[in-house]
Amino acid sequence: MDERRPRSFYLLAAFFALFILFLYGPTITIGILSFQGPEGGLTFPMRGVSTHWFEELFRRQSVGDIWGAWRRSVVLGLMVMVATVVVSVMGGLAFRKRFLGSGPLFYLIITSLIIPSILISLGVGLIFSQLGWDVHWATSGFGSQLTWTLPFGLLIMFAVFNRFDRAYEEAARDQGATAWQTARHVVIPIIGSSLIGVALFGFTLSYDEFARTLLTAGSHNTLPLEIYGMTTNVTSPVIFALGTLTTVFSFLIIAVFLIVAITSQRRRARRGSDAGQGMV
C-alpha cells in the first residue's frame, strides 16, 4: 500500500502554518520587542536583551493609570461574566417553549451583533446623558458591553437546550424534586461545561472590548482605552511590555477556565460511576 501523502496535504499544511503565523506573529513580535535593553526602541533590530521595560511598567507612569485601568477591566469583566451567565441560562430556559413575541424578541437580541459597536456606545452614552445619569464604566459601560456578550451567551444556551433531554427533568420530578431542586441538582450539573464556556465568552469579550466602551466609560478608562491612549504619548517598549503581560494574563484566564471545566467533568463522571456501582 502506498502511504505517501498527497501533494494537497502539504499545500494545506503550509497554508495552515502561514495562517498560524499571521494570527500569532504580531503577538510574538510584541513579546520579543518587550525584552529590549534600556536603549531599545519600537522596532527591530533589538538593542540588547533585558527586563528593563517590565520594571518600568511597574513604576509610576507620568501619564495615565495603567493598573487602575486593569483593575477596572477585571471588575467589569467579572460583572459582565456573571450577568451573561445568569441571563443566558434564564433566556435559554424561557425559549424552550414558544411564547407570544418569542420570534421578534430573538431577532431583536441578535440585531445588537449587527449594529456597529461604536453606534451602540454612542446610543447608550446619549441615553444616560439625556436621563441625567452619570456616564461611568460600571453602569453605562456595563450596559453597552452586555449588548455584545449576551447574544453570544444566549446562542450557546439555545444550542445546549435544543439538545437537552427533558427525561432527566421528568425523572427528577417523579422522585419528588421541586422545580428549584431539579434546576440545581439536574439541569445545572448537566450543562455545567457550557456555562463555563459562556462565562469565558463573557469575561474575555468584556476584558478586551474597546468600541462599546469608548463613549460609555466616562472619565475612567478601562485597559483597552488606556492602551489606546498610550499609543499617542508613549514611544518606548513599555507599551510592548504591557501587551506581553496582558497576553499572558489572557492565556492564564483561559487555562483557569479549562482546568475548571476538566475538573467538573471528571467529578461528574466520578459521581456517575459511584451511582452506577451503588445500584449494582
From TrEMBL:
Gene3D superfamilies registered for this protein in UniProt: MetI-like (1.10.3720.10)
Cellular location(s): Cell membrane
TM annotation in the entry: 9-35, 74-93, 105-128, 148-165, 186-207, 238-262
Biological process annotations from GO: transmembrane transport
Domain ABC transmembrane type-1 residue range list: 70-257
Membrane topology: Multi-pass membrane protein
Keyword Transmembrane helix: yes
Keywords: Cell membrane, Membrane, Transmembrane, Transmembrane helix, Transport
Gene Ontology CC entries for this record: plasma membrane
Main location group: membrane
Top-level taxon of the source organism: Bacteria
Database matches in Pfam families: BPD_transp_1 (PF00528)
Family membership: Belongs to the binding-protein-dependent transport system permease family. CysTW subfamily.
Protein name listed in UniProt: ABC transporter permease
Organism: Amaricoccus solimangrovi
